[in-house]
Amino acid sequence: MRPRFRALTGLAVLAIIASACGSSAASAGPTSGPTTGPTEAASGGAVASPEPTVAPSLDTTPVTIKVWDYYGETTPIKPALDGFKKEYPWITVDYQALDWDSMNEKFKAGLGAGEVPDLATLDMTWIPTLAANGALDDLTAISGGQLNGTPIKDQYASGAIDAMTYGDQMVSMLYDFDTYSLYYRKDLFDQKGIAVPTNWDEFRAAAKALAESSKPGGKPDKYLTAIRPNSFHFSQYLYQDGGSLLNDDNSQAVFNSPEGVAAVDIQKAILDDGSGKYWADADGDLTPAIKSGEVAMFQDGPYYMGLLKSGVPEQSGKWAVATAPFSKQPGSYLGGTGLGIPIQAEHKGAAWLLAQYLLRPEQQIGVFNYAGAAPATTAALQSPDLTKPDPYFGGEQPFGVFLESMKTSRPFPYVAAWDDIDVAIADAMQKALLGKAPVQQALDDAVTETNTLLKK
Amino acid sequence: MAAAIARRFRGASAGYLLIAPALIVAVVFLVIPMVVSGYWSLTHFNGIKPPEFVGLQNYADVVSNPRFQRAFQNTVFFVVMGMSIGPLLGLGSAILLNDNLRLRALFRTSFFLPTMTSLIVVATIWKLMYADNGIINAVAAFFGLPGHAWLTDPTTALPAVVVTAIWQGFGFETVVFLAALQAVPREYYEAATMDGAGHFARFRWVTLPGIRSTIVFVFVIGIIGSFQTFDQVFVMTNGGPIQATRTIVFDLVDRFNKLDIGGASAVAYILLVFLAVLSYIQLRLGESRD
Fold first, then answer.
1. Of the candidates B53, B49, B256, B37, which has an alpha carbon nearest to the alpha carbon of residue A135?
2. Contact (CB<8Å) B252/A24
3. Minimal CB count within 10 Å: which of A347, A374, B172, B174?
4. Taking CB atoms and an 8 Å limit, are B30 and A33 in contact across chains?
């Protein structure tokens, strides 16, 4: 019997290699060196032009480009492809729909295996890691600084240009933007006579007045305010109190400042009052809590307008959006979705043609109309579609609130270790909000960890 | 010497031909990835730029990394808890099922059902059960007990995941132990009974020696499986809260997602060496008692 056990153990040991170390090997595949050759022009794309004013000449050799899109069912990209095919009949688009998590993993696994799309929707929070590893093509060369015949810098707000730029490279084209404002149940505010909060004190008081218990004398368990322990929300409060995550040259963390402590304190106070609902990222989307009435106020981006409409249609007319209350100044993180071309993409020219097509104002409006999210180009932002009264929000025009918020938003620092820093901040938030460590100590620990990461 | 080898090969050529397909598959999908991964573990490699040889730097970085250390502690906790309770439950249920119970087949199928169910499905169901308004808190409330945020509280998150893993895994252990129990000759029990042995004595002196090799098997396979825990953690807690459920394989995947393929490969090899040593010790212990 013993030799059989030995054999079984041997097999099991081999299995662990295959699934543990081998899994990365198998999915990463053979090494592909960086594609550093001239910008592709031969396989059907636009010729890279160093002169911004020179119109691209087109190679109409039939080509199929791969597009990976994490937008989901409400994607504005898939409906745009018929029009693109009519205009560029020699380009066939092999479109793959993925969800956010799958895209995050598949894209990175694909980089190692050399199996990448020609164009992908990428969360702007992934950009630091991707760009620092040289995974994304510098679009400066392929675009010649032009987007649909107009200088790129004239088509985006300056904050958006910052978000698209890593070092001296333009590594993505912002497709939709994300900046936070206050969502609240207007019907309950009206019913209870609560004024829309404009500062943190009023915010805390409004949360308290809004919360209710379903049992007489019980702990509040409905109409709560969502408190999210992540870097997105921490940075929002931090910026509002005048703080920063890192110093000016991104060499040191400074978020354990008094402003950082205040940013956590306000959220902790709402939880301690019993009027907050702690909702970690691992808890998933907030929609179920909104649907059940457990949450009646939260801060999030414009994409949530679409999520509310599709996920909680029965609450139509009950919600409103307002400028996020702040202590000293308005502020929010700036993120969103970028269109990126991997460095290993085979048909960069054709991919750039599609990217430009998707960034035309008439297509950008699809971001709002299909997904309920916020288009990123300034031309699209002037569309009357965005300022039409929205019945879901009681006939108001919530989009303007986000536009206003974008003016004071800033992207996360573009440092290579951002993914790990993001986790360090989220851990600090969780420690402090769950009472596992004093706020100052939690932030000090996270700053120490961040500084170690920045030195690598 | 060469001629002797050639003669030997000619004699067994049909055999080598028959195992060739399996051998090729094993080499291509197991041995080569292992070797390549071993090389990557000695390099800075992100999958895009060519690997840059750094010697044992990745291993030093991994071992000194607080998140890896936490992952290691969590995994050991997971293994100890899981392997303390799971096999006991499996053995207990197998002993019960070994009697001539009515509906034995139904119980056996019921116990084995979670093992056949997808890890993701099981983890999702348990995540819903652990939710604030899930069935576990509802049952607690029925008995007048306060609810608890099982997966949000760093103190209870890991034990909650362990319970899920035990629930899913003990059906496998039950079936394996049941097969072993049924292979123990009835005559041994009859002889022991005639010698005046009671239930416990029969279990101690007949059953346990009879299934010892199965016990070693269950522990070796179980420990290897527990050290590889990822799916439940990924679905239920994503390694949180505050890294309370981060496991070694979760750490590996996390590094891979950050394009640190060199570091991920180093973690895989550390896990391999650790498991190989552990399995060797277990087998030697099993052998020494034979």
1. B49
2. yes
3. B172
4. no
Q: How far is B101 from chain A (nearest CA, A)?
A: 30
Local structure of residue B151 (DSSP, 8 states): T
Instruction: State whether B241 and A280 contact (CB < 8 Å).
Output: yes
The per-residue pLDDT for range B91-104, each reduced to its tens digit, is: 998 988 887 777 77
| Inter-chain touch B241–A283, beta carbons under 8 Å | no
Report the C-alpha gap between A19 and B271 in whole angstroms: 11
By three-state DSSP, how is residue B45 classified?
A: coil
The CA-atom distances, in angstroms, between A383 and each of A321, A366, A402 are 20, 11, 15
Closest residue in B to A21 (Cα–Cα): B268
The pTM (predicted TM-score) of the whole model is: 0.83
Q: Sort out which chain B residues have CB atoms less than 8 A from A418's CB and list them.
A: none
Q: Tokens 């041995």 — which residue?
A: B31
| Kind of pairing between the strands at A165-166 and A169-170 | antiparallel
Q: Which of B48, B257, B268 sits opposite A21 (nearest CB)?
A: B268
A32 with B48: Cβ contact below 8 A: yes
Amino acid at A319: W
Residue of B nearest to A32 (CA): B48
Rounded distance between C-alpha atoms, residue B90 and residue A252, angstroms: 53
Span A144-160, pLDDT tens digits? 999 999 999 999 988 88
Please say whether the beta carbons of A174 and A124 come within 8 A. Answer: yes
Q: Look up the ipTM and state it.
A: 0.81
Q: Which amino acid is it at A382?
A: Q
